[in-house]
Amino acid sequence: MSVRLGVELSPISCRFVVLDMSPARGQDAFPTGIRAFGRLPRDGAHTRNELSKFRGRPAAAVVWGLQADHRHAVVPHGSFRRMRRDAVAEMQGAGVETRGRVADIFASSRASGAPTRSVVVALASTPGLVSATRYLGAQGLRVQSIVTPALALMSLARLRRDLTTPDRIEAYVALEESTTAIALVRNGLLLAATELTWGYQDRRGMTLPAEEIAGRLADEIERFLAARSARPDVMEQVCICGGLPELRSMAIRLMEQLDVEVETLDSLFGIDPARLPDPQFREHAPGLRLAWAVAADWPVPVNLLRERRRRLTKTVLSRAAVAAGVATGVGVAWQLEQSDWWRSISVVRPAVQRMAGRDRAEGPGPAMSLPTPPPSVALHVEAALQGGRPNVAHTPPPLQAGETIAPERAAESALPSGGGPPPTAAAATLPSVTAQPQVPSRIAAAATKPPDVTSASLDLSPAPGRSVRRTLQPSVAQLRESDVPLYAERQPLSDRPRIRPASEIALPFDAVLGTILYAPERKLAIVDGRIVQTGDEINGARVVEITPTTVLLRDVRGRLRQLGLAAATR
Which of 36, 360, 494, 518 fits a 20 to 30 Å CA distance from 392? Predict the structure, then answer.
């Protein structure tokens, strides 16, 4: 599948992104191309018109507000259905309400010889799933999977796994207008998650200050960790995405409060910059990360529609089996209707009975000539006369040409083997028959069977069943973590800092340096009230290097400029 559609449904907005998974020349499927994207209101005619452009296309959806519960459990190794049942039972034992909810799991790879497996369990409200499915189905989309925001963050972590430290816990945060999701992930597996009822906008739709958002988010993360007996220092880093306009400014303040590295997912990781429909996509990339993740991580590890699709498939197969049975019955009836056996029984027996009734009423008549019957009809005439199959034990001498069959011999020919009485009176009063040339004296009795209709060349395999079996997807239990390709983010050549010669002297630069935030993985500085990093432009000069004490820039003439903490004045 070269084109995939990812949709994110929040209480306020609907975001979508169409991925082009066809590899570029000399590359694999990653990085992905972008064919279309958009952010629309949740309801409205314009939203329906935009989504109707993708009618009939399979889609993966992220739905907010499903009242979901996420857990990490260890269950005995077994089939997927058994592990799912054990995981749900474990959640019931932990006091989680499971009635009226849909459950699904993702089983990690099993250690060699281990009797147990680690699984991710997700429970979601059934009415919420039905409502989201109807909403997307009304737009003409073929919804293949539905996940929660926490599960979408897990898919995002799986795609970025080679950029993180193994066996370390990461916190992923998604900020939307009126809701927020927090997920703890380790080695690409979801450990715990929560969904908050506030976002970066107030009730009037105004964006909250960055300091307030950072303070509330830091309190929620600490409270979330404390509920699981953990401290903030257990986290390797915090990754943030969402539609907040000033995402980097908020991330700096959150870093100061948590004392943990905070990374904003506002880069084009996993996306080919050469295949963008609009340069403005860079500004909307953080808000489209969840929709991009569920479309890129295909099929998703946890699918809340998996059980519904399994039942639907079972229903389709049952109906196909009924249709096959009906087709088989119709085929057998048609073969019987076309066979000689059916015609001989339905036509010859009434004629013989009428002939026998007339002979009883009129007595023996003159001899008559019998035309040569077809072999199959002749055999069944004999069977009809004997009330069953032809008698092969009692075979009188054959008739010669022109010989007359007397009534006594006709009655004798109808006697069963063993000399018993004739089965019916009609068989003893048959009229005499004159044999024609080339006609045997007596029809050779041979045991025959009706035509074998079961061996007829009929294709009774149900076509709908075969179509359904081709569309079935592999079970989640068959997936391994190594099956999902992970790729590192590459920095464009134009953004890489240029190495300066050791003898080059840096000239002073006219700007105000507030502070420098220096870390091995993140180097930021505040210049003239702006947060900048390597590659950003300030007053016509580009930042080429940030050290713990200085910021180096190059002006339009290529001259090296320096801005230090000691000379942070105009």
Answer: 360
Q: Does domain 495-564 have CATH number 3.40.50?
A: no
Q: Which residues of the chain have pLDDT under 50?
A: 365, 367-371, 376-381, 384-385, 388-396, 399-496, 567-570
Q: How many CB atoms lie within 10 A of CB 459?
A: 8
Q: Compute the distance between CA of residue 551 and CA of residue 395 in angstroms, rounded to an integer.
A: 119
Q: Are 446 and 429 spatial neighbours (Cβ–Cβ below 8 Å)?
A: no
For 215, the token pair is: 């303070």
**pLDDT for res 469:** 39
Tens of pLDDT, residue by residue over 313-327, are 656 666 677 777 778
- The reply to whether the predicted model has a pTM over 0.70 is no
- For the chain, the first-to-last Cα distance in angstroms comes to 58
Collapsing DSSP to helix, strand or coil, 448 comes out as coil
What pLDDT does residue 235 have?
Answer: 87
φ, ψ for residue 394, nearest 5 deg: -105, 105
Domain boundaries, the chain: 3-299, 340-450, 495-564
**What residue has token string 């997936």?**
479
CATH architecture of the region 3-299: 2-Layer Sandwich (3.30)
